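Problem: given the chain below (121 residues), write out its structure.
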Amino acid sequence: MKLLLDQGLPRSTVKELHKLKIDSIHVGDIGMSASTDADIIDKALEDNIVVITLDLDFHTILAVNGNMKPSVIRIRIEGLKSKELSKIIQNALILAEEEIEKGAAISVDTKGIRIHKLPLA
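Solution.
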């Protein structure tokens, strides 16, 4: 499973995820730092990548369009350092692996993780 980290997340998180053996890339590393959320979803769909974001708009786009993929994990905890963020992402991947493979909109906050299977209705 490969991850695409959105612009609001630190680029250094990619290095931390690689240390955890999690394949990932940041939108800024592939020339998409100024891309729209819809363009990022299209890229993730095309390349079978899971989007990691702070932005609610990704879940909204999935709901409005009735998408079955890509899976999107929204981190609802701001100000995290790369190391802590990478551990949170790793935990979400472990807890929701099956749902992510099938297509899911996931939210992670200080209280835990919420998983919604796609399409959102």
